[in-house]
Amino acid sequence: MPELLSPAGNFEKMKAALLYGADAVYLAGNLFGMRSAADNFTDDELLSAVRYVHERGKKIYLTVNTMPREYEYGALERFLHTVKDYGIDAMIIADLGVLNTVKRIIPDIEIHISTQASAVSSAVCRAYHDMGAKRIVLARELTMNEIMEIKSNLPKGLELEAFIHGSMCVSYSGRCTLSNYLTERDANRGACTQPCRWNYALVEEKRPDVPLPIMETENGTFILGSKDMCMIEHIPELMNSGIDSFKIEGRMKSAYYTAVVTNAYRMAMDSYMRDPKGYKFDDALIKELGCVSHREYCTGYYFDHPLKCANLGTQNGYIRDKAYFATALGDMELPKNVEFENENGRLYPFIQRNKVSIGDAAELISPGKVGRAFSVTELYSEKGERIESAPHPSMIFFARVPFEVHEGDIMRAGE
Known about the structure:
About 25% of the residues lie in helices and about 25% in strands. It is of the alpha/beta class. The protein has an eight-stranded parallel barrel with strand order 1-2-3-4-5-6-7-11, surrounded by five helices. Strands 13, 14, 15, 17, 18, 19, 21 and 22 form an eight-stranded antiparallel beta sheet that branches. The radius of gyration is 23 Å and the shape is globular. The chain starts with a strand and ends with a strand.
């Protein structure tokens, strides 16, 4: 069984990833990660995260995959000395200087080479292995056949990791300077502003007030924005590819996104393992992945060479997710004088994420289950007062649900 590796932009997202089936999570401290705009983890939070993950028998990988400048190496060394005894399972590294520094300060740490290193051949994989790497995160630009060929030429014990879902960068393996040029924020040091996702227009020199939008037509196309990768319909090919770890992109996405995407791939992988020969894809899983914020889906470059099919978007902006109403809490004292259970279900406590009202169509998501539909018929405040809606961020409320609900289950908008 390959590893399912999920993003953890903060503690809430990390908990969602583990609850919904991730075997491992990847995250960053406040420095030297490629997603500096994510919440990320303070030193104390990072230590707590390691303990939380290990208590559940899972693994935790720390991204140290920026390309630091000369003046940043002092801070890097101080950071490494701080975390060297935390028990982190591996560090994800892109820069050779960082690799040498990590090996000097934490000589026994497992090394994973980041996709930022653009590994596209068995030769480069073996070279990193000679430098002490245990795993290579392959460049997104490789086809399935190329990955299988690379795997066949690797020494035993050298693992391969590949992205199977999430945003793709229009620049080769993420090595982009557009953000630096337009906003003076360096994408290769974790500060990308994603200008490839912005709207652009052409302006004629003498008519600056009459911009011409760039759009998909018979005569033109979006020039920067990539589609999102989605390989949920190709689990058998992935499982037989030789890839050791399936990686989901999205440290800056919501806990809801992390939970839903991880859940879908966990169900698909487990279903395949139960009966590889009889495996049939469940269409409900692609429907689940349509319920999170995403751009148009494609299969990345697993089956299309980037020179022949760039997988550029044809729609402007994101396809929005269903409203994330609330997350179920653990056991709480029920309000007095309120009917706990009736023919419409039981009352369960939730913490609000978006406004939910009486009469709303809703769905409940649980680990190992796709969304189950129900109607919001009763809502109560934390004090037991009957309410028409739960409008306030993070308010505690009780809702009557016709299914058994467990801590961490998610209530979202239905159809």
